[in-house]
Amino acid sequence: MYLNMEILRFTTAGSVDDGKSTLIGRLLFDSKSIFLDQLEAISKISNRKGLNQIDLSLLTDGLKDEREQGITIDVAYRYFATPKRKFIIADTPGHIQYTRNMVTGASTANVALILIDARKGVIEQTFRHSFIASLLQIPHLVVCVNKMDLVNYNENTFNEIVNTYKNFASKLDVKDISFIPISALMGDNVVNRSNNMDWYQGATLMHTLENMHIGSDQNHLDPRFAVQTVIRPHTEQYHDYRAYAGRIDGGVFRKDEEVLVMPSGLKSKIKAIYYGDVEIEVAFPPMSVSITLNDDIDISRGDMIVKPNNQPNSTQDIEVMFCWLNQNQLNMSGKYLLKHTTNQVKAIFKEIIYKIDISTVSRNETDKQIGTNDIFRAKIRTTKPLQFDPYRRNRNTGSLILIDETTNETIAAGMIV
Asked: Are 274 and 173 in the same domain?
């Protein structure tokens, strides 16, 4: 029943003790997405702690063990499904020093849940997480004003927080923001509608996530197909068969349409499109397909199939907004491997333009020292031209990663400006 359902990816962001773990636990518990053995285990721990009710935050608190042991804290992914949709949750730590983890978890998200403690209101961490969500072009923000039970479910408290956030959000590049008053601990407006907040007429969090329109989150305007591999069976049955496999990163491709191969600039027409072993007439993001062409063109991994009248940028000099993930500082004279779509090239830094002060969300043009978790804008040069779109236009063809040649570690994630 769940096989062909749409997947919604969302990330959670909030300050420490804003109730992220409890909220995710409540979503899983009230949507009946917890296994019985899990429920028994957290019930026993809750009893040992002397609690009157089950501590739902225990469902996601594997990260706390890592924090106490001093291990690098990573993004924890949770999966669950309802009859309407499948969900992937990226549960990321909220501390400043784990900015890179939020960037990792949020990079593929359709929705960011921004948690605000109703008692504290909008704080610096709220600005920081919202800014990162905006920077990563997450299409939808859901601001969850949590712990409403601790402010007696007061409507004025909620409205004040909404107004403060809206004033700040006017400076952000976010298309869709909604606000929900909740109590993750008590279950108000998470999966089930609250009886304590008659003044709130909007949808519950689960209803919002289940019914949010995410079909237009993908770019359906600019046809982009980065070739991942060339399929050559070399069998008697498929003697001259040559297909190009990959993922549709943008736009729509149709059988018999003219296409252009970059960087060669050669043209052909689509002979057939296969989704698995089924031939289809039309392909769109994020489908993984194989395409055959009428002409025998020299195409290899890293080439991009596009439309003649709609071509991406193609240049060696690129401006990128980076998040530095590595513990070692950026070395301006270093050479790095750059992965973009299915392409891998070498790259060097030409210039650091500015660094962003995450605390004040302001630009710093004097400090050019780049270390872990720093977000900065830079000019780079690659050994050969990349075919790309700006990140704000297409998150698939506008994103890249840098890899250390010697250690093979991913050292930076980038968004092409």
From this structure: no
